[in-house]
């Protein structure tokens, strides 16, 4: 981030940009020869970090800044699509990722992000196709494996564990949470608790991990532990679904 910011201090002298509600106004000062693509890449990198942090509004702004400097940046279109998916704008997300693929047909990131948008919009077959293509291009792309697994589960109602995603990137919280939920449904409560423990080791602020662990503990009769986990889930997210109902009387 620091390196990106240092690079971007230079471009601020060249471009003034206002971004609001998806509308863009751009005023270019007298043209000065400068490596605009390099500055665009710095904005893309910032957008990627914002996406990973869950700051999707910032990711949209930063990806848009990149596109103002280089409208042919496939990575910027893909990052913009990812942020739009997270904010529920699936139609625009698919459009942005498709533009990324038009510019770079071998972008595994764009295929994976478009797959996520299709999955969220209910096009599970399309999501599986896109995620599978991403995996062909990058066999160790954990997000693509995760997206493929989720879409297959929703399309066929076949609950398969996200083991490949966990093998490729065991530091991500979401696959641990998803596997814990699947294990609860299979009545493997000890396995679910172990997965929730790992998720909470990676992110102690994950309310849904506390909530799933409370469920598993309640099912094995550990009501005191379930109560403690429910309280923590509610402290982190007072609106978390069904946490109060899990509390033992």
From TrEMBL:
UniProt repeat feature TPR, residue ranges: 40-73, 74-107, 108-141, 207-240
Keywords: Repeat, TPR repeat
PROSITE patterns: TPR
Name listed for the protein in its UniProt record: Tetratricopeptide repeat protein
Family annotation (InterPro entries): TPR-like_helical_dom_sf, TPR_rpt, Ycf3
Organism: Noctiluca scintillans (Sea sparkle)
Taxonomy of the source species: Eukaryota, Sar, Alveolata, Dinophyceae, Noctilucales
């Amino acid at each position: 981030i620091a390196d990106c910011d240092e690079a971007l201090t230079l471009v601020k002298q060249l471009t003034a940009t206002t971004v609001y509600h998806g509308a863009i106004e751009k005023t270019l000062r007298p043209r000065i020869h400068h490596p605009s693509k390099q500055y665009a890449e710095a904005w893309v990198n910032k957008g990627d970090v914002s996406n990973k942090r869950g700051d999707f509004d910032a990711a949209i702004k930063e990806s848009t800044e990149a596109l103002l400097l280089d409208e042919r940046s496939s990575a910027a279109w893909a990052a913009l699509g990812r942020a739009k998916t997270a904010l529920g704008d699936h139609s625009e997300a698919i459009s942005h990722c498709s533009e990324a693929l038009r510019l770079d047909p071998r972008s595994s990131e764009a295929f994976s992000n478009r797959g996520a948008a299709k999955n969220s919009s209910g096009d599970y077959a399309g999501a599986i196709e896109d995620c599978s293509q991403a995996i062909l291009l990058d066999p160790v792309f954990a997000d693509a494996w995760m997206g493929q697994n989720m879409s297959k589960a929703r399309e066929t109602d076949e609950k398969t564990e996200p083991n490949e995603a966990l093998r490729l990137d065991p530091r991500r919280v979401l696959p641990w949470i998803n596997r814990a939920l699947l294990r609860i449904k299979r009545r493997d409560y000890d396995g679910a608790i172990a997965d929730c423990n790992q998720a909470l080791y990676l992110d102690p602020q994950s309310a849904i991990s506390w909530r799933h662990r409370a469920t598993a503990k309640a099912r094995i009769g550990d009501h005191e532990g379930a109560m403690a986990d429910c309280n923590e889930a509610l402290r982190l997210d007072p609106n978390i679904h069904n946490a109060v109902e899990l509390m033992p009387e």
